[in-house]
Amino acid sequence: MRVHRAGPTAALITAIGILLTGCADSGSDGAATAATGTKGSSPFAGKTLTVVVQPDWKPLMWKNGKGEETGYFYDLVNEAAKRLGAKVDPVNAEFSAIIPSLQSGRFDVGVGTDATVERQQAVDIVPFLKAGYRFLVRKDAKDIGDDMDELCGLRIATLAGHSVIPPVKEQSKRCTEEGHKPISLLSFPTLAAAQLAVKSSRADATDAYTGEASWIVKADPSMKITGPEINQNFSGFAVSKRTGHADAWARAVNEVIDDPSGIYRKILDKYGVSGIAIDRSVVNPAK
Prior knowledge:
The chain is an alpha/beta fold and 287 residues long.
């Protein structure tokens, strides 16, 4: 979730990807259960919440031709907010700034943040999908095999602060221990910049969220998806541990999932990512 999966200074803090919890220990490991009447008991009823997004992350979050926010991350957080009686006001920021901005109280929600144990120590994360990462390369480039050792010696472009960085660094260490060349990690502020680095041959590959991969190659036939899938985890939005009310958000997400209209699946189907659906949202799912 990405975070990200996963933008520029006008990007998803992109982490697209994060949520709020009512008190310091409200981000417990207990499963959030679907609730009725969430709006009536909502701590956000009647409020407009600032939601940090990364606007260049199709199909997760981006601005359409009318300058409006769209994408399944945006649609899902908007649906959850409705059930809390709140409205959302999207703002743009670099991915690496999301967690600090939530901790400082500058923003209310960070969308597109992968759940990791480290991040859950700083903020509460409410998931609404589960996905992983593969690699985006030029179509004329050699395929990367499914083994992690195939990454040895490659230059991999990624977002600053991205959740794929720790596992790639670990793999790079194994590469050198086994006598192979290390992996070179290149940091960029936006997804567009990372992908441009691959297209211009400044990088060999960039991580691609499985919740966006098919969309990317359909929109840009000059690229292809290849390599092993890594770092599969839950992703959604993050909120402050102090003021975020993560449990309320989880109840709202579960109401969206359980809605008889099927709105949750319809949103994912709309963007061609039905395979990343989950059955239940649990605050801080990473163990």
